[in-house]
């Protein structure tokens, strides 16, 4: 096992937080669905709405989008939550693509149809806008007054599936993530996202020249951001500034602790079932379909400025990419998955190697002048959608900058941002996840 990766271990991490109970006894596909959707939401290890002395988060209503053959897995309409901007942010837009894993077969998709990740019938009609979606200047200093949209995820393939007909397998399935993307974008364009396309002949229109647009996403929504970043740019040809941010979405195509490439096999199933190859014309014919789904491949063809936000020790990837179901029959990784401070020397060597694999995968993008990155040394997953990790007294810092500050500096060209944290256990500001019990039982 020690030969999987090779690098030196560290010894100390700061522990903070607790997580909820596991979904024991279910298939891994179901565990992927439930665990990643929970990682992508507000961290249950802390108060759902930490305010740090400020007002409570704003609740934003759900809007459903009808027509255009765009439907969730179960045939219900997709949706989004929209909060209008104000002041000098009223002409700028920030869109966030929700995350929540994927479904790889009919059984896992059938389970997903019964949740908010497969049906708008199960979505909350109002959600809190926190982190990068907050309208509180003290918690979100650069984007607080923008038009902000949270796009709900209900197709199971990162808004990229495109099967024309309903799929019958005892019950009906709709694999139409691409059409959901197109329908939601069309609806938002009609509500003001397209204003910068107007010819400018008035003072009001000239003010629109300052319009900016920012596509973001977390986890599986982060992967969606890589997939659709250039699509977003193409929708706004006259918008002066269009950029993208992928949070916790740089999933790695690496061997797990047993020597398998488990995640590639998982993505192969998703890609074949939902016919996602149409989205990846850059992929060579000798590549497996799942390979084309990894961000390292998708990002190669992106021309729009992109910000890569990822922890070097992503807690979700440690469990589901590095030590997934079947790779650890003796359950030797159980404690390490729950709490990085419980990892032994050999496990720490492997985790350091996993960090090295991430740095190797993003290395080619460091030379892109208009790209940014923030790779901290924390044991967490998704940091832009949690108030405590986005911008708070407890947020992780690199060179004394929070994630929010680094992203703002990059977006507004205040400085070049290529922040790569030192190895575990160097960063005492890290906010690390600690699980009470594993998310799955081996």
Automatic annotation (TrEMBL):
Location of this chain's protein in the cell: Secreted, Cell wall
Record GO biological process: cell wall organization
Keywords: Cell wall, Cell wall biogenesis/degradation, Hydrolase, Secreted
Catalytic EC class: hydrolase
Main location: secreted
EC number: 3.1.1.-
GO MF annotation list: hydrolase activity
InterPro entries: PAE/NOTUM
Domain of life per record: Eukaryota
Pfam family of the protein (one): PAE
Family: Belongs to the pectinacetylesterase family.
Known function: Hydrolyzes acetyl esters in homogalacturonan regions of pectin. In type I primary cell wall, galacturonic acid residues of pectin can be acetylated at the O-2 and O-3 positions. Decreasing the degree of acetylation of pectin gels in vitro alters their physical properties.
Record protein name field: Pectin acetylesterase
Organism whose genome encodes this protein: Urochloa decumbens
């Amino acid at each position: 096992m020690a030969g999987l990766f090779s690098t030196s271990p560290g010894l100390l991490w700061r522990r903070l937080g607790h997580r909820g109970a596991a979904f024991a006894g279910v298939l891994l596909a179901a565990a992927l669905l439930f665990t990643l959707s929970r990682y992508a939401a507000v961290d249950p290890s802390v108060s759902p709405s930490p305010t740090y002395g400020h007002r409570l988060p704003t609740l934003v209503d759900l809007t459903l989008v009808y027509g255009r053959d765009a439907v969730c897995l179960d045939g219900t309409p997709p949706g989004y939550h929209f909060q209008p901007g104000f002041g000098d942010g009223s002409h700028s837009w920030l869109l966030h693509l929700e995350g929540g894993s994927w479904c790889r077969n009919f059984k896992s998709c059938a389970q997903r149809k019964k949740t908010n990740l497969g049906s708008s019938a199960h979505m909350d009609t109002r959600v809190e806008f926190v982190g990068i979606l907050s309208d509180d200047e003290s918690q979100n200093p650069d984007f607080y007054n923008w038009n902000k949209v949270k796009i709900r995820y209900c197709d199971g393939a990162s808004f990229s599936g495109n099967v024309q007909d309903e799929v019958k397998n005892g019950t009906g399935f709709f694999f139409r993530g691409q059409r959901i993307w197109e329908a939601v974008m069309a609806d938002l364009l009609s509500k003001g996202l397209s204003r910068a396309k107007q010819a400018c002949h008035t003072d009001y229109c000239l003010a629109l020249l300052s319009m900016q647009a920012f596509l973001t996403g977390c986890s599986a929504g982060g992967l969606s951001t890589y997939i659709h970043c250039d699509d977003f740019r193409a929708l706004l040809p006259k918008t002066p500034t269009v950029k993208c941010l992928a949070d916790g979405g740089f999933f790695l195509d690496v061997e797990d602790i047993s020597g398998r490439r488990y995640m590639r096999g998982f993505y192969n199933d998703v890609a074949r079932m939902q016919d996602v190859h149409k989205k990846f014309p850059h992929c060579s014919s000798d590549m497996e379909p799942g390979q084309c789904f990894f961000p390292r491949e998708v990002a190669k063809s992106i021309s729009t400025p992109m910000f890569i936000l990822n922890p070097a020790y992503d807690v979700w990837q440690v469990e589901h990419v590095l030590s997934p179901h079947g790779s650890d029959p003796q359950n030797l990784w159980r404690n390490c998955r729950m709490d990085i401070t419980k990892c032994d020397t050999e496990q720490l060597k492997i985790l350091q190697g996993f960090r090295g694999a991430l740095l190797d995968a993003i290395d080619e993008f460091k030379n892109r002048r208009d790209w940014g990155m923030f790779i901290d040394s924390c044991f967490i997953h998704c940091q832009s959608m949690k108030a405590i990790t986005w911008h708070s007294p407890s947020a992780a810092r690199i060179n004394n900058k929070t994630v929010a500050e680094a992203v703002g500096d990059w977006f507004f060209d205040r400085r070049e941002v290529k922040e790569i944290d030192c190895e575990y256990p160097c960063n005492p500001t890290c906010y690390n996840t600690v699980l009470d019990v594993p998310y799955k039982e081996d």
